[in-house]
UniProtKB/TrEMBL annotation:
One of its GO terms (molecular function) is dCMP kinase activity. Keywords: ATP-binding, Cytoplasm, Kinase, Nucleotide-binding, Transferase. Belongs to the cytidylate kinase family. Type 1 subfamily. It catalyses: dCMP + ATP = dCDP + ADP; CMP + ATP = CDP + ADP. The lineage of its organism: Bacteria, Pseudomonadati, Pseudomonadota, Gammaproteobacteria, Candidatus Pseudothioglobaceae. Residues 6-220 form the Cytidylate kinase domain. This is Cytidylate kinase. GO terms for biological process: pyrimidine nucleotide metabolic process. It comes from the Bacteria. It is found in: Cytoplasm. Its EC number is 2.7.4.25.
Amino acid sequence: MIPVLTIDGPSGVGKGTVANIVASTLNWNLLDSGAIYRAFALAASKRNITIKDTKALLSLASNLNLKFVSDPENKKLSVYLDNVEVSSELRTEKTAELASKFALIGSLRESLLIRQQRFKELPGLVADGRDMGTVVFKDAPFKVFLTANVEERAKRRLKQLQDKGIAGNISHTLDEVKKRDERDASRKHSPLKPAKDALIIDTSNLTINEVVTKVMTLVKV
Ligand code: DC
């Protein structure tokens, strides 16, 4: 049995950071499912494929030339699309918004499912996203859902962008975060919501280390 820990939650909640630390502490594999949706969105926009062209989108999904190269020493995951590094391009709000729009399409989600499930390898997997505990790894023994109030998440998202040298301001970021959450949570297919058996952690007033400690306690039981 390969253990899986799912970490789901809205944008800017700190899933990526927590998932990274927990995966490297446990020495488990890491799936950043958002990066798959972002890379797909980037690939589609580079090819000028519109959201309505389902046939072209599905063909792209099954032929997507996507590679993740992890550098555990620097806690960094590099993403290569068509053999070109796109890690920074993936992190922009423009790519995030586009990813969230493509993520509405049920048949597309289905065709990206196996690509995500293939990350489940020994000794274990930490999977971060929106539907890891509800759809992609429904049977996972460990499930966490992170939440935080929207103002705090916008602040965290802005800091994350600024740390990467991407400009932004708080009111714009707040709007973007709200819009994306609304779209991710209200969609028909695999909406953002906690799995029934997930441990819900409100991180609004917690440090990253405090969240990591709570998550590690769950896995170690
Ligand atoms: O986690 P992220 O910000 O990198 O995700 C970008 C978008 O991709 C998110 O707004 C919706 C979509 N997404 C999804 O629909 N399902 C996932 N498991 C992960 C991301």
